[in-house]
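sry for the spam today, last one i promise. struct tokens for design, 458 residues
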């Protein structure tokens, strides 16, 4: 009886279901029919990947760079594939914008293609990325290293932010580091911390010549650097396996190049071409202020390709508008007022003396306290004796300093006091410069000591 009752209930349920289906309205939208046969995509689903599974996958990646796998690397893989998936999706969206460019220059310099992943570790594929210590661009060049590899930097233009020029410079630097150490893991470590620190770690380790052999002797940031590179290389090779697909990738508009030899505002040019100002800025990220400088000679400005013919046909009138005196004056006025601006100012270095207060230093040099903090990455007001501060002073301030200088003393010597620097000493006497002090005293550096007697004139 129980079995018969069960069968009877089953048929009742089926009958109800059929009746419900017959009563439901029939959709004529073909998308509804397609949806019935498409699997549901769960954007939030996070697949599990064991230590051994990841080891097998890494072993399958063909690379000219060693992808050493261990628990340190696995922790970074977990970070990129589990903990911060939004960051990983962001770089996946950007990769098709920059990877073709990286691959072109890596091939040109005969370097491993997997080095393209290094830019993700450095900048997250952001050309405008700026670190707290002053490294800039996709490849995070410091000012001195950038200049060493031909990247110009001034108030208007910073070629460290140029994807093309910085990528070529990075390839040259990476090739130099590999030739120096003969090992890609050490070359990557040196790219992060400098070849001097890698050599020091090699000496301290008893002259071991592998990254993991000198690991404990490297700076803390560098110990994480190579494991992050391996983790990023793995993650971008196994995007699908970790459910990190991005359906809408980032892109740059197709571009053409025009040569500009005058001041030009990107904002006004965008209005004249009826294009998005952000598109112009993204095509020219090295233009720090959104303008082509007045001193430019045949500056290769990139514009949307579909506007090239229109600009060529109307070039005279458009360039007159974007470089008009009115536009230029408005830009200069805004540049002078902007927070942290160095426009029209000269760079000086001040060495903090005992008893100095940050506000008084700012007042003495005619600069805003907020700007002084910004220029030196100072959050509060704490400074210490001997600290070197960078200031940007107006020309009038330099003139005032110069007019207050003392005539050279009769003995033509200066006794170095605590807190003195060559620059501070040069400011005290008329007609004296740092270069002249160094020449008179045969100094090879700017290092001086209290009690030292310096010749300051003949």
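last one done:
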């Amino acid at each position: 009886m129980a079995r018969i009752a069960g069968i009877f209930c089953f048929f009742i349920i089926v009958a109800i279901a059929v009746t419900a289906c017959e009563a439901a309205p029939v959709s004529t939208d073909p998308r509804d029919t397609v949806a019935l046969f498409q699997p549901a995509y769960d954007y939030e689903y996070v697949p599990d990947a064991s230590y051994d599974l990841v080891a097998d996958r890494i072993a399958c990646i063909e690379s000219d760079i060693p992808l050493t796998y261990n628990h340190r690397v696995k922790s970074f893989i977990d970070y990129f594939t589990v903990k911060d998936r939004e960051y990983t999706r962001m770089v996946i969206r950007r990769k098709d914008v920059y990877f073709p460019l990286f691959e072109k220059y890596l091939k040109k310099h005969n370097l491993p293609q997997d080095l393209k992943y290094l830019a993700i570790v450095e900048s997250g594929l952001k050309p405008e990325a700026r670190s707290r210590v002053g490294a800039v661009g996709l490849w995070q060049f410091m000012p001195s290293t950038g200049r060493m590899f031909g990247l110009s930097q001034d108030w208007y233009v910073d070629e460290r932010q140029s994807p093309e020029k910085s990528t070529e410079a990075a390839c040259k630097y990476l090739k130099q580091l590999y030739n120096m150490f003969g090992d890609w893991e050490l070359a990557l470590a040196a790219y992060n911390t400098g070849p001097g620190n890698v050599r020091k770690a090699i000496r301290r380790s008893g002259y071991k010549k592998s990254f993991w052999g000198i690991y404990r002797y490297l700076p803390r940031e560098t110990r994480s650097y190579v494991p992050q590179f391996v983790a990023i290389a793995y993650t971008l090779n196994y995007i699908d396996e970790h459910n990190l697909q991005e359906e809408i990738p980032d892109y740059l508009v197709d571009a053409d190049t025009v040569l500009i030899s005058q001041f030009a505002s990107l904002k006004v040019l965008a209005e004249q071409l009826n294009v998005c100002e952000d598109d112009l800025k993204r095509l020219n990220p090295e233009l720090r202020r959104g303008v082509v400088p007045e001193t430019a000679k045949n500056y290769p400005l990139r514009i949307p390709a579909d506007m090239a013919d229109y600009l060529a046909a109307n070039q005279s009138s458009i360039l007159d508008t974007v470089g008009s005196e009115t536009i230029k004056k408005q830009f200069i006025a805004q540049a002078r007022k902007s927070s942290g601006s160095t426009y029209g100012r000269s760079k000086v270095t001040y060495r903090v003396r005992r008893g100095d207060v940050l506000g008084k230093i700012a007042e003495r040099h005619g600069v805003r306290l907020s700007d002084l903090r910004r220029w030196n990455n100072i959050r509060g007001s704490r400074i210490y004796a001997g600290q070197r501060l960078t200031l940007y002073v107006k020309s009038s301030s330099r003139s005032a300093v110069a007019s207050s200088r003392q005539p050279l003393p009769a003995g033509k010597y200066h006794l170095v006091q605590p807190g003195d620097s060559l620059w501070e000493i040069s400011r005290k006497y008329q007609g004296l410069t740092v270069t002249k002090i160094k020449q008179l005293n045969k100094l090879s550096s700017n290092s001086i000591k209290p009690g030292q007697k310096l010749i300051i004139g003949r």
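The CA atoms of residues 132 and 254 lie 33 Å apart. ok im logging off now
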